[in-house]
């Protein structure tokens, strides 16, 4: 479904991603783990064309993305929950969710999706008409996830979805990941909470200072000593 | 009676400020740019209308529409050439570019048309409507009508329609907007097109009302519209119109009853006081930043 | 100096050639160039041709100073026909005094321009003189008892005229309203409504055409019945505003309908050269160049002191009247009061001397 | 007497009671955790304690003095400083300058001495330079001294924000989700840093955090909030087993 | 460390003096005519005006559009002072005293305006300062002592190159030192994040007013120099466009870079003169070049950095790298990235 081939990404002079390649297959949950500043966010941004690689290609369902404009990816079925939530602060919770469904034309079936999101996050329903900039950090995070789900993506990129959420909700998030996986959505997950991420993931890649240093089956990595030591707090 | 006549005078000035402020606030609301070149788009619209009126005998509505469309094109071209490359630059750099564009268009008009004002043909029958001892200009009525209509239309557009919501999303976070599938460049172009068309509309009516077209035509109304937009709560569409009317009224009544020599100082003085009491303008919400 | 070596005598012109007021600087420069052309065709002065070097000031004082310095240092001008506006001329004045530069401004009407500056002269009359004359005309010829004044508070010219008119008319009748506006204003309905409520016999509108045209239009729009009087800033009003200006009066440097030969020759030459009719500013630029050229001829050299002495002794007929200078360097000449009748200038009165 | 005491403070936004009759006591050198579901009102409480929001009722006493109605900078001066849930560094300035800005209480020189470069300027700037570098040492960040804050990796930015808050020499430090966005390993480090701070600076800490390993690991007292009200208070052990807390916050 | 700084100071002082001596010699030797002297004086005046605005806009991060208003206050106050005193004291003390009065008056007005206005942020502050600039003009137009629209004459013409030069040097020096001190750091922190600044104990209101007042005072000094060079003042000199011109210099030079301001003031003062040959197209070209410059260097010529001697070498290296990077970036379509 998604294929990243030998990409290099720079921020001016900083060489953030060095020759990274990986794949995500249809229906899989793949997770990227790595320390702060390893380049996880950068990779996700490159996939959704917020950043451009100086070298290498990203293929989505076999199509190279270089031909497309960034916003067109959404039409192909990609959604991205960005780091730092990035909700539209002056717009209400409801409007933010509507923006998530920006490309959708099927008004009738959208109702059910709103309801679905409100069952995931009852808080959002309570805050429906509040400008989202005044939401608490965690509430904004819920909104960012809900917003991305509204586009009914084929491929969902999640950048630290559990950040700032209460323990109960963290569990909920990983439940959601499993639920939508079952519904057929492919997921690329970036998490600090590597332990839980590896538990829901099929496969994982370990990133260190812009390079992939390890990859494999999630369960195996969970048992890997070096991974345990560096990322699982063990 | 005198008071009523002055009220009408105030309405007349206010309606034109309101109309111009609409375009101003539209662009500001979306890209947070104090578009100094807005006045020059007005001027361009006025010259286009002037040339059409003098060289053809199209009816007023056509002249107006053509001027609006061409000005929208100019606005979009300016955006693409002068503002788009600066998307990532500090806001103030774009402001300076806008000032540069404003100078440029003024000087271009100066070279093309020379400084002396051209006389705008009477596109609308200007003989005032007399109600008892009172006189209301037809241009005033047209402007008044248009500013209210456009206020309602734009407000609905921005609040209710998809492209309108896309504009608001873009104004808050371009990157996140892309992730929603919004074409940011096209959305901004559309904003400029609408803003510039409104500017041209204001420019033509301004020129008709005050009979002249000249290269710096847009400077004063542009500035006043900016003030009006801020006064009403910048970025808010009804605020722009309200601000326009309030400024027009204050101006007229100071001149009529206080002092003409000091009127500018009084108007600005009041503006300053209002902003100090209500820092986000009349209709602005005093929302404290959530930290 | 440089120009002597080329056998060319350079005269400088400074005025707004770009910007809002470019028509004024351009008119002066065109008048000056026409005069230079005629003089050269007639054999030049003392065997040399004269050349006009005109620089833009945008009406800005800083620019004017730079332009003046450049004219003096780079171009080596012998005399200055400028500046066009009072502000820029005043900004140049102190430097010019230091340089002992012969300066003859065609159009700077501010009373201080020639004050304690033996090298500075002007071809136009001063603001106070013009304002007072208008008041006398209103009272004596139009039998006005009441007058209102509406002027541009930001503009020295408008302010100067307004104040002088006000002073003078107060002695002759009643000033009902003394109101101001700013350069940026476009809407005068509020103040006009206010003025109309007191029903004055005349309204004094000392400003330039562009503004006066708008004011007169709004006077008509509001249906106010009043006779308007203006100053030389009205020159050219009949071109675009003949409808709204019909019947009103203004003071000017010359009347186009004046049958005198100098006047008619000038108008013909100007129209032939530029295919448009000359404004009063063009006439003043033209006259000033002739006066300056005559002074250089009389001086017999480019020596500044001699030229200044010769300027002081000017005594001849020009397009804008018979000119001699008083001790200050201000002209002693007549004012033509013109009425717009059927869209044409009609000489209503010629007020002579102080 | 407690170092910081909030009694019955409340605030509402529109109709919403974000914080309702909240009480809190933090003693000298105590480490108190403030937890609760998202939107419970934790950050809002910080905002009231630091003068960003004015409580609609109740009183806050810091070190014997009421701080209600005081400006944030006055409260800093009185000894309370904080970090933000969304990192707020001086992005375009260097790491060292970020610290120096907070470290101004010991720099006694006037504007005039700056302009004239009087001896007092040199003396205190030298102190500033040295103390602030030492400060960075403490956080293992001296290498980044000349880096612009915006170019730091996320975890380091969090750390810098804590260091900056500490540079104001507070009596009580309030940390709003310092571990957010850190992996378990980094959280571990953070825990050590916090212990280090308590040891070296001898101050009280009030901590908001959703990472239970951190909260349960180091807090002496934990206050649990839900819908603006305290629903439980006690040691880690007590809270962990509190039914309500499990229901609304921890989950099974 | 202080030793290195001392050396640095000596180098800078030497350079500043050498420039002065060279310029003076060129002037007395007739290589630089009065025309160029005039331009240089205007450059110096613009340097003073723009660097003072840079303190507010570049360092403090507040957009103001009324700097010409402070310039006006300083110009009139100092002009009136010297008109009164000119028969009593000689040139240099006269200039200094009147500039002092001009600076203090403008500074006081700056405080009076600043205290309420600085509670507002961003574009609202811009509007208030714009309004203030206009109000000042109306006041000058309407009171007797200033000569109203007729302007003020009789000002002694005593602002020569040498005075202007050293005054500009002092202004830059003061601003440099101020911005490189505890006060300067506080001012910059407000630009970066006002909430955070307060949260670490910065008295934001105080520092805002301080910055505003100092900027206003120096604008007043700039205005005073102008008055004593032109020897004639009228209110129109200090219109909105003047404020804009000063702002353009600041942004083009780089917000928060005094060196940038100096360079930009020089370029933008010379540019209109250099374009004289183009007659009516002059201003068209000027504005065109302004747009180009902004497009080419949106962060300003110097960004937020200052010129440093030891930096020359690094800079050339950086430039080469930057050029290489630009090539790289060109391959990337940068059009739709977020802020
Ligand atoms: N806008 C930027 N400009 C310059 N450097 C940047 C920028 N964004 C990120 N970097 C650098 O690129 C590298 C990778 O950053 P990235 O944000 O992708 O890391 P990450 O793995 O997502 O980290 P985290 O876990 O903190 O989110 C880091 O060294 C970071 O400092
Ligand atoms: N300025 C405001 N206007 C309106 N509502 C607000 C405002 N600030 C906070 N709220 C609301 O008050 C509640 C408490 O917010 P607060 O940020 O204190 O939560 P929190 O406990 O810190 O949550 P989190 O753990 O998610 O950060 C939230 O529901 C939020 O929506
Ligand atoms: Mg990341
Ligand atoms: Mg919070």
Helix and strand topology:
The complex is a heteropentamer of chains A (234), B (291), C (354), D (252) and E (339).
Chain A (H helix, E strand, L loop, with lengths): L1 E10 L2 E11 L4 E6 L5 H8 L7 E6 L2 E2 L7 H5 L1 E4 L11 H8 L6 H14 L1 H5 L10 H13 L5 E5 L7 H16 L3 E5 L3 H7 L2 E6 L2 E7 H6 L1 H7 L3
Parallel strand pairs in A: 3-8, 3-9, 6-7, 7-8
Antiparallel strand pairs in A: 1-2, 1-4, 4-5, 9-10
Helix pairs in contact in A: 3-6
Chain C lengths: L1 H5 L1 E8 L6 H20 L7 E8 L4 H15 L3 E3 L4 H14 L3 E3 L14 E3 L4 H14 L5 E7 L3 H17 L1 E8 L7 H8 L5 E3 L4 H13 L5 E4 L6 H9 L3 E4 L8 H14 L5 H20 L4 H9 L2 E4 L2 E5 L5 E2 L2 E7 L2 E8 L3
Parallel strand pairs in C: 1-2, 1-3, 4-5, 6-7, 6-8, 8-9, 9-10
Antiparallel strand pairs in C: 10-14, 11-12, 12-13, 14-15
Chain E lengths: L1 H27 L5 H26 L7 H19 L5 H27 L4 H21 L18 H19 L2 H11 L1 H6 L4 H27 L9 H14 L4 H17 L7 H15 L14 H21 L8
Helix pairs in contact in E: 2-6, 2-9, 2-10, 2-11, 3-4, 3-5, 3-9, 4-9, 7-9, 10-11
Can I get a quick summary?
With 234 residues, chain A is α/β, with parallel strands linked by helices. Helices cover 38% and strands 26% of the residues of chain A.
Descriptive key words:
heteropentamer; A: 234 residues; alpha/beta; 4-stranded antiparallel sheet; 10 helices; 10 strands; 26% strand; globular; E: 339 residues; mainly alpha; ABC transporter involved in vitamin B12 uptake, BtuC; binds adenosine-5'-triphosphate; binds magnesium ion
Describe the structure.
The complex is a heteropentamer of chains A (234), B (291), C (354), D (252) and E (339). Chain A is α/β, with parallel strands linked by helices and 234 residues long. Chain A has helices spanning 40-47, 72-76, 93-100, 107-120, 122-126, 137-149, 167-182, 194-200, 218-223, 225-231; strands at residues 2-11, 14-24, 29-34, 55-60, 63-64, 78-81, 155-159, 186-190, 203-208, 211-217. Chain A is 38% helix and 26% strand. In chain A, the strands form two sheets. In chain A, strands 6-7-8-3-9-10 form a six-stranded mixed beta sheet, sandwiched between helices. In chain A, strands 2-1-4-5 form a four-stranded antiparallel beta sheet, with helices on one face. In chain B, the strands form two sheets. A two-stranded antiparallel sheet of chain B has the order 1-4. Chain B has a two-stranded antiparallel sheet with strand order 2-3. The longest helix of chain B is centred in the first third of the chain and has 30 residues, at 2-31. Chain B has a single domain (2-277), classed as ABC transporter involved in vitamin B12 uptake, BtuC (Orthogonal Bundle). Helices cover 73% and strands 3% of the residues of chain B. Chain B is globular and about 60 Å long. Chain B is mostly helical and 291 residues long. Chain B is built from eleven helices and four strands, in the order ααααβββααααβααα. Chain D is α/β, with parallel strands linked by helices and 252 residues long. Chain D folds into two domains: 4-88 and 155-250, P-loop containing nucleotide triphosphate hydrolases (Rossmann fold, 3-Layer(aba) Sandwich), CATH 3.40.50; 93-147, no CATH class. In chain D, strands 6-7-8-3-9-10 form a six-stranded mixed beta sheet, with helices on both faces. Chain D has a four-stranded antiparallel beta sheet with strand order 2-1-4-5, covered by helices on one side. Chain D is globular and about 65 Å long. The chains are: A alpha/beta (234), B mainly alpha (291), C alpha/beta (354), D alpha/beta (252), E mainly alpha (339). Chains B and E meet through helix 4, helix 7, helix 9 and helix 11 of B and helix 5, helix 10 and helix 12 of E. The structure holds adenosine-5'-triphosphate (ATP) (2 copies) and magnesium ion (2 copies). One adenosine-5'-triphosphate (ATP) sits between chains D (13, 16, 18, 36, 38-44, 85) and A (127, 130, 134-139, 164). One magnesium ion binds next to helix 1 of chain D.
């Amino acid at each position: 479904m998604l294929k990243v081939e030998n990409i290099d990404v720079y921020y001016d002079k900083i060489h953030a991603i060095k020759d990274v390649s990986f794949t995500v297959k249809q229906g899989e949950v793949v997770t990227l783990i790595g320390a702060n500043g390893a380049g996880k966010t950068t990779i996700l941004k490159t996939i959704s064309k917020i950043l451009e690689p100086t070298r290498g290609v990203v293929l989505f369902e076999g199509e190279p993305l270089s031909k497309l404009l960034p916003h067109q990816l959404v039409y192909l079925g990609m959604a991205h929950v960005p780091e730092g939530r990035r909700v539209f602060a002056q717009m209400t919770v409801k409007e933010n969710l509507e923006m998530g469904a920006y490309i959708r034309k099927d008004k009738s079936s959208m109702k059910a999706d709103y309801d679905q999101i409100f069952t995931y996050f009852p808080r959002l329903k309570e805050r429906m008409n509040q400008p989202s900039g005044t939401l608490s950090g965690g509430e904004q995070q819920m909104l960012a996830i809900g917003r991305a789900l509204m586009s009914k993506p084929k491929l969902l990129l999640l950048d630290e979805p559990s950040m700032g959420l209460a323990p109960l909700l963290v569990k909920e998030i990983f439940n959601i990941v499993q639920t939508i996986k079952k519904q057929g959505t492919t997921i690329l997950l970036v998490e600090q909470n590597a332990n839980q991420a590896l538990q829901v993931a099929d496969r994982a890649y370990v990133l260190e200072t812009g390079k992939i240093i390890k990859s494999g089956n999630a369960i195996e990595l969970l048992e890997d000593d070096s991974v345990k030591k560096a990322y699982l707090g063990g | 009676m005198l008071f009523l006549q002055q009220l009408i005078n105030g309405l007349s000035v206010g309606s034109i400020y309101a109309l111009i402020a609409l375009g101003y606030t539209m662009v500001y609301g979306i890209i947070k740019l104090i578009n100094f070149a807005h006045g020059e788009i007005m001027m361009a619209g006025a010259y286009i209308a002037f040339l059409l009126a003098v060289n053809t005998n199209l009816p007023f509505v056509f002249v107006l529409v053509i001027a609006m469309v061409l000005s929208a094109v100019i606005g979009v071209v300016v955006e693409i050439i002068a503002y788009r490359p600066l998307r990532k630059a500090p806001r103030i750099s774009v402001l300076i570019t806008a000032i540069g564009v404003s100078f440029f268009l003024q000087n271009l008009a100066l070279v093309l048309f020379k400084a002396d004002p051209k006389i705008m043909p009477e596109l609308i029958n200007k003989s005032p409507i007399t109600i008892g001892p009172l006189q209301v200009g037809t241009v005033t009525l047209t402007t008044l009508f248009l500013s209210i209509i456009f206020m309602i239309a734009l407000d609905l557009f921005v609040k209710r329609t998809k492209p309108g919501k896309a504009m608001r999303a873009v104004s808050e976070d371009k990157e996140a907007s892309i992730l929603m599938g919004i074409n940011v460049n096209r959305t901004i172009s559309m904003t400029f097109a609408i803003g510039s068309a409104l500017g041209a509309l204001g420019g033509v009516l301004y020129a008709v009302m005050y009979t002249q077209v000249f290269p710096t035509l847009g400077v004063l109304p542009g500035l006043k519209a900016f003030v009006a937009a801020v006064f009403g709560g910048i970025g808010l569409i009804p605020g722009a119109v309200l601000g326009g009317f309030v400024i027009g009224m204050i101006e007229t009544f100071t001149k009529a009853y206080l002092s003409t020599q000091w009127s500018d100082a009084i108007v600005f003085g009041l503006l300053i006081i209002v902003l100090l009491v209500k820092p986000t303008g009349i209709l602005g919400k005093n929302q404290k930043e959530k930290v | 100096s440089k120009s002597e070596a080329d056998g060319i005598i350079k005269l400088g012109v400074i005025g707004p050639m770009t910007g809002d007021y470019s028509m004024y600087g351009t008119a002066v420069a065109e008048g000056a160039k026409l005069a230079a052309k005629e003089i050269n065709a007639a054999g030049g002065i003392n065997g040399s041709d004269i050349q006009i070097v005109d620089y833009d000031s945008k009406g800005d004082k800083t620019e004017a100073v730079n332009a003046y310095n450049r004219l003096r240092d780079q171009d080596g001008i012998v005399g200055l026909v400028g500046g066009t506006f009072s502000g820029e001329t005043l900004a140049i004045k102190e430097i010019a005094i230091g340089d002992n530069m012969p300066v003859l401004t065609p159009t700077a009407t501010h009373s201080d321009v020639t004050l304690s500056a033996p090298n500075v002269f002007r071809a136009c009359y001063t603001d106070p003189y013009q304002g007072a004359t208008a008041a006398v005309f209103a009272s004596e010829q139009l039998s006005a008892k009441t007058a209102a004044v509406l002027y541009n508070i930001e503009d020295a010219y408008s302010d100067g005229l307004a104040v002088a008119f006000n002073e003078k008319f107060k002695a002759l009748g009643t000033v009902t309203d003394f109101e101001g506006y700013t350069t940026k204003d476009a809407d005068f309905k509020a103040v006009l409504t206010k003025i109309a409520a007191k029903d004055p016999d005349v309204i004094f509108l000392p400003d330039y055409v562009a503004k006066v045209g708008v004011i007169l239009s709004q006077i008509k729009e509001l249906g106010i019945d009043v006779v308007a009087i203006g100053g030389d800033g009205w020159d050219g009003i009949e071109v675009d505003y003949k409808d709204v200006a019909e019947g009103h009066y203004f003071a000017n440097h010359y009347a186009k309908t004046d049958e005198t030969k100098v006047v008619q020759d000038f108008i013909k030459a100007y129209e032939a050269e530029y295919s448009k009719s000359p404004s009063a500013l063009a006439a003043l630029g033209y006259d000033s160049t002739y006066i300056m050229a005559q002074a250089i001829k009389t001086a017999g050299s480019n020596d500044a002191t001699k030229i200044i002495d010769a300027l002081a002794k000017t005594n001849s007929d020009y397009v804008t009247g018979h000119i001699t200078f008083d001790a200050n360097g201000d002209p002693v000449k007549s004012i033509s009061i013109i009425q717009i009748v059927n869209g044409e200038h009609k000489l209503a009165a010629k007020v002579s001397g102080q | 007497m407690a170092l910081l005491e909030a009694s019955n403070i409340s605030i509402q936004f529109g109709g919403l009671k974000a914080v309702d009759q909240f009480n809190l006591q933090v003693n000298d050198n105590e480490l108190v955790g403030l937890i609760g579901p998202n939107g419970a009102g934790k950050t809002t409480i910080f905002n009231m304690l630091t003068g960003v929001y004015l409580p609609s009722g109740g009183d806050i006493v810091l070190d014997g003095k009421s701080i209600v109605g005081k400006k944030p900078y006055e409260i800093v001066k009185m000894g309370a400083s904080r970090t933000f849930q969304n990192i707020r560094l001086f992005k375009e300035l260097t790491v060292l300058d970020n610290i120096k800005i907070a470290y101004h209480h010991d720099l006694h020189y006037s504007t005039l001495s700056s302009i004239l470069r009087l001896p007092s300027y040199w003396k205190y700037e030298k102190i500033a330079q040295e103390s602030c570098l030492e400060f960075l040492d403490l956080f293992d960040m001296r290498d980044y001294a000349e880096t612009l804050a915006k170019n730091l990796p996320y975890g380091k930015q969090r750390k810098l924000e804590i260091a900056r808050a500490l540079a104001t020499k507070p009596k009580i430090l309030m940390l709003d989700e310092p571990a957010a966005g850190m992996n378990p390993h980094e959280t571990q480090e953070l825990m050590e840093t916090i212990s280090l701070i308590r040891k070296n600076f001898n101050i009280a800490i009030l901590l908001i955090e959703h990472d239970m390993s951190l909260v349960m690991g180091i807090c002496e007292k934990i206050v649990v909030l839900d819908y603006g009200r305290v629903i439980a208070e006690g040691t880690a052990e007590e809270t962990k087993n509190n039914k309500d807390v499990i229901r609304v916050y921890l989950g099974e | 460390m202080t030793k290195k700084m001392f050396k640095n100071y000596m180098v800078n002082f030497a350079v500043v003096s050498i420039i002065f001596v060279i310029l003076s010699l060129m002037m007395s030797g007739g290589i630089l005519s009065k025309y160029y002297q005039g331009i240089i004086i205007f450059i110096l005046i613009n340097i003073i005006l723009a660097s003072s605005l840079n303190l507010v806009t570049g360092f403090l991060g507040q957009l103001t559009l009324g700097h010409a208003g402070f310039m006006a206050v300083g110009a009139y106050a100092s002009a009136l002072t010297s008109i009164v005193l000119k028969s009593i004291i000689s040139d240099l003390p006269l200039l200094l005293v009147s500039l002092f009065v001009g600076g203090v008056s403008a500074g006081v007005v700056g405080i009076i305006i600043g205290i309420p206005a600085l509670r507002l942020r961003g574009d609202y502050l811009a509007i208030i300062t714009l309004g203030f600039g206009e109000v000042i003009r109306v006041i000058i137009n309407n009171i007797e002592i200033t000569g109203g629209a007729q302007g003020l004459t009789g000002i002694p013409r005593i602002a020569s190159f040498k005075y202007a030069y050293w005054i500009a040097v002092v202004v830059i020096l003061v601003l440099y030192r101020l911005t490189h001190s505890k006060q300067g750091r506080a001012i910059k922190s407000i630009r970066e994040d006002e909430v955070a600044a307060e949260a670490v104990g910065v008295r934001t209101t105080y520092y805002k007013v301080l910055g505003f007042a100092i900027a206003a005072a120096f604008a007043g000094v700039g205005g005073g120099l102008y008055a004593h060079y032109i020897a004639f003042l009228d209110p129109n000199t200090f219109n909105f466009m003047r404020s804009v011109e000063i702002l353009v210099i600041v942004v083009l030079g780089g917000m928060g870079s005094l060196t940038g301001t100096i360079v930009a003031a020089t370029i933008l003062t010379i540019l209109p003169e250099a374009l004289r040959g183009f007659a009516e197209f002059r201003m068209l070209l000027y504005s065109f070049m302004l747009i180009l410059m902004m497009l080419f260097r949106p962060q300003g010529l110097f960004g937020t950095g200052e010129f440093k001697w030891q930096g020359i070498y690094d800079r050339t290296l950086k430039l080469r790298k930057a050029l290489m990077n630009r090539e790289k970036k060109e391959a990337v379509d940068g059009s739709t990235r977020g802020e």
